[in-house]
Design a protein that fits this description.
The structure is a homodimer. Chain A is of the alpha+beta class. Chain A is built from two helices and eleven strands; from the N terminus they run ββββββαβββαββ. The longest helix of chain A has 16 residues, at 139-154. The first copy, chain A, is globular and about 55 Å long. The interface between A and B is medium-sized, with 34 and 34 residues.
């Protein structure tokens, strides 16, 4: 425990440098297009073959919305415009913060609006009633889409805070705070 | 550059473990009480002697709102309830994401609502017109409070996205997106 700190840290036994570890941000987006949203079938582990929204670790040198747009291009060659913050879910047991925006699909340079990137087997637009609930890759994505479908049905988007835990093999949404936005 | 990656990473020359570095989250809150907000005068570097809102690095094992509440207690022995997401500013040049909530001050176990914690020289409630603009510690805090004062004056809180850069010795707010909340 370094001087002035209240918890144990990883300290180099050679040079005494403190190696801080903090939660990491996963940035992504729910991409809307003509009443549908874009889903990607994962070509990589973890959860190969399961469906997700474009999302990934935020990198140094970019903003969170820029990271979400980058992931959309990497996973689905989709150009997007970020519309609004949508979800911040902390997944405490794996030290990840899922930060998800609503975005709209833009027309790119070529005719195709989207196509599988290197990390995707397949990319498609699905209507809310077509979301493959039992084949979603991650708990945070499951709850983001569940709330999205509720919001679309009610005609009013909200911004959602909460945390995701895993209990008895199931993901649970805790401390959910939802406020209308826009 | 590890196999399958598109950028350089720190890789251990002994065991080949990849040491990913990602932006870190600073979580904090604007604490409201009877038309005033709580400010802390910093007792530590950086920016010793300057004023800020309670905020600090999010830790592994906590949610972002819980981290903001923890910082409020550590810096001002203030018990708070998180009300709504308020600001997400990416400070790209230092790889930090400032995530700020609006919160309300709660009555604790003792009579005092707040007092300086170990990292603060002084803690006080200020009305919007009393905010010491030229003595604020950080660019992200300056813009969070500027927008807060605007929102209070207009009678409608918004949620704010943006990034902070430093240009010619001055902090600049870029890509500001503001949406009414609640």
């Amino acid at each position: 425990m370094p001087h002035g700190e209240d918890r144990e840290r990883d300290v180099c036994t050679s040079c005494a440098m403190i190696h801080y570890q903090n939660p990491r941000m996963i940035v992504g987006c729910i991409i809307e297009h003509e009443g549908s949203i874009l889903l990607c079938k994962r070509a990589i582990e973890p959860r190969l073959g399961f469906w997700t929204i474009p999302a990934g670790f935020m990198e140094i040198g970019e903003t969170a919305p820029a990271g979400a747009a980058r992931e959309s291009y990497e996973e689905a060659t989709a150009r997007v415009r970020i519309l609004a913050p949508y979800v911040h879910f902390d997944v405490v047991h794996i030290a990840q913060a899922y930060i998800v925006y609503r975005a709209e699909l833009l027309r790119g340079d070529d005719a195709a609006l989207f196509a599988p990137g290197e990390e995707s087997l397949e990319v498609k637009l699905v209507r809310p009633e077509e979301i493959p609930w039992t084949e979603l890759a991650f708990g945070a994505v499951y709850y983001a889409l569940k709330l999205y479908v509720e919001d679309v049905a009610s005609g009013r988007y909200r911004t959602h805070l909460g945390s995701i835990s895993r209990e008895g093999g199931k993901f649970v949404l805790n401390d959910h705070l939802a406020l209308p936005v826009g």
